[in-house]
């Protein structure tokens, strides 16, 4: 098959949601449809249960599960679908943000009762940064929730994206009758069945068809007619270009648990979701059809077992064909590397692969060469853009508890931050090390791993910071700013200047008093083009 056809065939996406909205359940149902698994219950939730937030065994288990299910691939209607899994726990949100740099589109799951939640907002912010196309699945229609028009309004307002329903629910909760498919006048009637695979649609000529009353009852038939009239009155027809630009999200309603409303979404997904898209680099946009192989590392998974120090680096192939046992160049170090056992992933297993194409994710054994965001090329010295660090939300100072082991501590901190577990900031003068993370659990992971993998002991002392912002702009003004706040301006690992603000108010003041300085919430300030 030609490279063009291989590219055309691939749809690489992520499923995102606030915890508990139904991401794991939906993933499993999609795998069932794709024939990648045979029975429900095969996909383990990668969530750390709320009751076990500081249980290291749970963390290890979670990491073990998430490596196996990092990418799940299956064929559906002639397309190769790659689902990139994202951690379910909010404390690992930065992992999710980075995984989103490797997808070409997303499906966002929202709980009909809860609507837009904190994580939904943050994840969509990340999608908007790079105009990722979004399909929304409103889940749990078998439960009471918000009125569908209200939920659409909420999605539009809170997520700053236009919506267009493509299916419409007929009632909800215990009175949920099913969905009406707006594009082909068909009804998919609901039956609670967790193992059901295919939907049987009933085609009706139009909403005036008198069978509607018999099928859903007079009251719901009337409501459906009124709703559809309203939808056609207020929503523009679905515009595919706007979807591809990340401006418009088609919306489906259903119940992942009951395997309901999923097939129509999947069918639409394979039809409209983009194939691998160009990726921006510091030199030019890389187009997938370029013959030479390029790719970037978006995730690194370390083995927690101290006897097996290997790590798996996840490479998203961006152009050309990745081949086993072929030398590639690691532009950051200039090293040549080849991989004798690159993995690709199936539903819940991995296997050695000879070839991979744009859109595919390959797992590479790594002995410590890779850092998140690194590229791999056939020699070109380019670096991929759009794989930023995000402003951490929790900060602690690292205090070395064993001065004889300061080298180990330094190495450990460096490697863990290369893997993206946390961000490291250094305060000048004084060389104080401050760690920034997105969630509390990460401090425990770092402490545990420093001790067990690097034989270093550290304590984390609370420091009173609220947000980290990367600074650019007028150099003289920045120098002046630093003079007044020497303690609060630190360097990140790449020696970029970062302002640590103690409160939201102080950050606000800093912004308004220093109009010539820009304060950025991610380490990458411009993403040159959308992808
Ligand atoms: P997540 O990955 O987004 O965190 O969510 P997950 O799929 O684990 O689903 C969270 C809970 O919501 C699960 O229940 C799941 O069974 C339930 N759920 C998912 N889809 C639906 C749906 O369409 N309708 C209803 N009524 N419930 C749904 P749990 O009790 O937390 O876990 P479990 O014991 O069932 O696994």
Roughly what fraction of the amino acids lie in strands? Answer: 25-35%
Terminal Cα separation, in Å? 25 Å
Give the mean pLDDT: 87
State the CATH topology of the largest domain.
Answer: Rossmann fold
Number of domains: 3
What would you note in describing this structure?
There is one protein chain. By secondary structure, the protein is α+β, with helices and mostly antiparallel strands. The protein folds into three domains: 3-272, Rossmann fold; 279-376, Elongation Factor Tu (Ef-tu), domain 3, CATH 2.40.30; 394-520, Peptide chain release factor 3, domain III (Alpha-Beta Plaits), CATH 3.30.70. It is built from 14 helices and 31 strands. An eight-stranded antiparallel beta sheet has the order 27-24-26-25-29-30-28-31. The protein has a seven-stranded mixed beta sheet with strand order 2-3-1-4-5-11-6, sandwiched between helices. Helix 11 crosses helix 12 (440-454). The longest helix has 17 residues, at 218-234. The model is unreliable at 47-54 and 526-531 (pLDDT under 50). Bound molecules: guanosine-5',3'-tetraphosphate. Residues 17, 19-25, 45, 47, 88, 139-140, 142-143, 255-258 line the site of guanosine-5',3'-tetraphosphate.
């Amino acid at each position: 098959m030609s490279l063009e056809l291989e590219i055309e065939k691939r749809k690489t996406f992520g499923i995102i949601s606030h915890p508990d909205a139904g991401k794991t359940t939906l993933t499993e149902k999609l795998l069932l449809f794709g024939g990648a698994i045979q029975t429900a219950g095969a996909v383990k939730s990668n969530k750390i249960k709320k009751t076990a937030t500081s249980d290291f065994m749970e963390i290890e288990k979670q990491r073990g599960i998430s490596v196996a299910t990092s990418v799940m691939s299956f064929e559906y209607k002639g397309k190769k679908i790659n689902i990139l899994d994202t951690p379910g726990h909010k404390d690992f949100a930065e992992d999710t943000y980075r995984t989103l740099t490797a997808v070409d589109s997303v499906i966002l799951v929202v709980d009909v009762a809860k609507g837009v939640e904190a994580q939904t907002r943050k994840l969509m912010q990340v999608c908007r940064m790079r105009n990722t196309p979004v399909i929304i699945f409103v889940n749990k229609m078998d439960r009471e929730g918000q009125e569908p028009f209200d939920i659409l309004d909420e999605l539009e307002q809170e997520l700053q994206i236009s919506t267009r329903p493509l299916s419409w629910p007929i009632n909800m909760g215990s009175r949920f009758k099913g969905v009406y498919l707006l594009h082909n006048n068909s009804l998919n009637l609901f039956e609670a069945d967790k193992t059901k695979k295919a939907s049987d649609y009933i085609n009706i000529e139009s909403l005036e068809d008198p069978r509607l009353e018999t099928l859903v009852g007079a009251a719901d038939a009337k409501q459906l007619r009124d709703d559809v009239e309203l939808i056609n009155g207020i929503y523009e027809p679905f515009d595919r270009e706007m979807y591809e630009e990340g401006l418009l999200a088609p919306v489906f309603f259903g119940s992942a648990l009951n395997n309901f409303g999923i097939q129509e979404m999947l069918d639409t997904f394979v039809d409209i979701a983009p194939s691998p898209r160009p990726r921006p680099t510091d030199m030019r946009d890389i187009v997938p059809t370029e013959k030479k192989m390029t790719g970037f590392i978006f995730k690194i998974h370390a083995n927690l077992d101290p006897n097996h120090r290997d790590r798996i680096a996840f490479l998203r192939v961006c152009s050309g064909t990745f081949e086993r046992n072929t030398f590639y160049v690691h532009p950051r170090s200039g090293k040549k590397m080849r991989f004798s056992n690159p993995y690709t992933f199936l539903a819940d297993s991995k296997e050695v692969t000879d070839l991979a194409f744009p859109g595919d994710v390959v797992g590479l054994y790594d002995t410590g060469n890779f850092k998140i965001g690194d590229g791999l090329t056939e020699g070109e010295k380019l670096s991929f853009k759009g794989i930023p660090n995000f402003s951490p939300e929790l900060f602690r100072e690292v205090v070395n508890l064993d001065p004889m082991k300061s080298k180990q501590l330094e190495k450990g901190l460096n490697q863990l931050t290369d893997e993206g577990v946390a961000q490291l900031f250094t305060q000048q003068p004084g060389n104080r090390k401050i760690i920034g993370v997105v969630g509390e659990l990460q401090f425990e992971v770092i402490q545990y791993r420093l001790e067990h993998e690097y034989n270093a002991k550290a304590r984390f002392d609370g420091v009173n910071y609220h947000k980290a912002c990367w600074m650019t702009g007028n150099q003289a003004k920045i120098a002046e700013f630093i003079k007044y706040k020497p303690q609060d301006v630190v360097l990140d690992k790449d020696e970029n200047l970062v302002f640590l603000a103690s409160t939201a108010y102080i950050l606000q003041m800093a912004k308004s008093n220093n109009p010539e300085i820009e304060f950025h919430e991610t380490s990458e300030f411009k993403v040159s083009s959308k992808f």
